[in-house]
């Protein structure tokens, strides 16, 4: 730096700036990841959808009484004004409860874990679930009310299931697979899009959807899709369902609110990194301001002579703040590189958190430039306000 050796003060300032750049980079990556997660494809569409959670077993429905009551609930809700579609599932994606099953290809002879084709998420759904959840059917057909206990077992599978077990979507429809230790066999009648089932940051997982008439159970999540106001729908759902049975336990909320638990880690990480980024910025501003102020105070007479000899404002500012801004550039570059490496860890917490985004890089550069300008503003004003006549009289 113009022949001047680097001092411990310089190294400390570079470290302060680098820490600030790391925190700013991480916080911007977390914010972008959170924004993307709110507008991503989960394999279902939570917007304009309500969830009704009820347990028929708690209302004394068991055995053969469960499925008829579930059908009555669907018919009653579908008849309500403003309802676009309605469906039932024994659990919903990204909820805290899930179930998996080991899958074998149909021609597997030795049904042991080492020969398994996949471990798949399992859901038991009613006809209408795909429409209510806004899940896209890619091939084959949807489940129907004819897929009951008296018919051969059938299933919908997602794209990842079709790829791992059958090779492709096109080869899956009409094929069979074995599950639950290989003692059960089902035919694939349709393939749906992939989704998120346990966490937002998970890799693609195989999933299968069975007709709830072939796999009865009292756990009942009702998905209701409607353009009506959620509060109005919730009130109408309470009234309609309690008209069938006043003893039904009901928990009604929007699907977006149900996702709060899935987004909790992302939001906490974003807020925490935002606060740390702000503290890092204050640390960098303090360091740059201290160095710039010290430089200006020690070289006031030099600046006065420069101005007396005809130096313009640009040259004076370069002499006063050049060293601080060079250290800012070095620290920022090091911090951005470290920040991009560190944000790989964020991908395990924040869905779609990626540093490979020009907006993030641009935002970090702009933030660090603003940090430098804010820190150097007062020292720069003091340097430009030097009056060489006063300094010469003092001499």
**Share in β-strands:** 15-25%
Largest sheet: 6 strands, mixed, barrel
Tell me how many strands there are.
11
Going by helix content, strand content and strand pairing, the class is alpha+beta
The N- to C-terminal Cα distance equals: 30 Å
Query: How many domain regions?
Result: 2
What is the rounded Rg? 32 Å
What can you tell me about this protein's structure?
The protein is an alpha+beta fold and 395 residues long. The protein folds into 2 domains: 8-40 and 263-394, no CATH class; 49-256, no CATH class. The protein is 49% helix and 17% strand. A 6-stranded mixed barrel has the order 3-4-9-6-8-7. A hairpin with a 4-residue loop joins strand 7 (176-179) and strand 8. The radius of gyration is 32 Å and the shape is elongated.
Task: Supply database-style keywords.
single chain; 395 residues; alpha+beta; 2 domains; 6-stranded mixed barrel; 4-stranded antiparallel sheet; 11 strands
Produce a short descriptive summary:
The chain is of the alpha+beta class. The chain has helices spanning 8-38, 66-78, 129-133, 159-166, 169-172, 230-244, 255-258, 260-298, 300-308, 313-342, 358-384, 388-394, and strands spanning 49-55, 83-89, 100-105, 118-125, 137-140, 154-158, 176-179, 184-192, 207-211, 219-226, 251-254. The strands form two sheets. It has a six-stranded mixed β-barrel with strand order 3-4-9-6-8-7. A four-stranded antiparallel beta sheet has the order 2-10-1-11.
